[in-house]
Amino acid sequence: MYRTLGRYSPRMRYAELTDDALTSLDGSPLARVAGFNPLAMGPAAAAAALPDGGLVVGWSGGLGETLFERAFATWMPAGRSSLDAYLDAAEPVLRERGGRLLVRTHARHVISDAQAAVGLLDAREGAVGVAFDPAGCLEASMLADAEDHLVRFFELVGGRAEVIVLGSVLQPASLESEEPLVPAALGDGLLDPALLGRLVREHAREDAVVAVVGDDPEGQLRRAGLVGG
Q: Suppose 22 and one of 31, 38, 199, 224 were both cysteines; which one would form an S-S bond, judging by CB atoms 3.0 to 4.6 Å apart?
């Protein structure tokens, strides 16, 4: 057993995020996961490929040849118009199924950071939500000032995200590396778990789902100071 810690903990839920599902620590299913790049196919095909069942966590996608390839066109008008076409197709499909899409942030995708996430939430007025992944918003060149970036991310979108994905990243070969950062569990990478836990307590909405990826989810949450016992 564990006890929750922090100002928002009584209503905050803790979960594990896998390639297929978002599941609370008590085993209750919370959402399905769409792990594909929706911009690599037509909008209707991408909408049809979303998993059945209520809430879905999925990427906004990019215009590179692979899911996490950096492509500058992703952040140009072509990327946003492709995303809008996909969301226009996906929203009625999910609504018919009784569900919604939570877009997970990633530095290589259209919704690449907290500012882009806020813009999406403002534009879609509740039809689409956000699964805010602060570690996923980082590039190698940002690591020297990672704490400043994380604080700013949480200040912008932490209070609006329905799901917050907590994780870390491994040390890249250099801070000039063009490769996407490799994800790591809390405590196994460069980011301070205690800092991330503090930012959750300070900024997360009271009914947020806080999810970790990888083995020993309760241990990861303890490292962040979010659960104890």
A: 31
pLDDT digit string, tens, across residues 11-42? 789 999 999 999 999 999 999 999 999 999 99
Q: Are strands 101-104 and 3-4 parallel, antiparallel or unpaired?
A: unpaired
Q: Are the CB atoms for 90 and 67 separated by under 8 Å?
A: no
- Asked if 110 and 135 count as a contact pair (C-beta separation under 8 A), the reply is no
- Please provide the DSSP assignment of 27-83 as one string: S-EEEEEE-S-GGGS-HHHHHHTSPSSS-EEEE---SSSSTT---GGGGSHHHHHHH
- What tens digit of pLDDT does each residue of 40-91 get? 999 999 999 999 878 999 999 999 999 999 999 999 999 999 999 999 999 9
| Cα–Cα distance measured from residue 110 to residue 56, given in angstroms and rounded to the nearest whole number | 18
Structural domain boundaries in the chain: 3-228
Q: Where are the alpha helices (DSSP H) in the chain?
A: 43-48, 77-96, 114-124, 146-153, 193-203, 217-223
Percentages (nearest 5) of helix, strand, coil residues in the chain? 35, 20, 45
CB atoms within 10 A of CB 224: 24
Q: Which residues contact 156 (CB under 8 A, 6 or more apart)?
A: 114, 115, 117, 118
Q: What tokens appear for 71 in the block? A: 């492509």
195-219 per-position pLDDT tens digit: 999 999 999 999 999 999 999 999 9
Q: Are 149 and 120 in contact (CB under 8 A)?
A: no
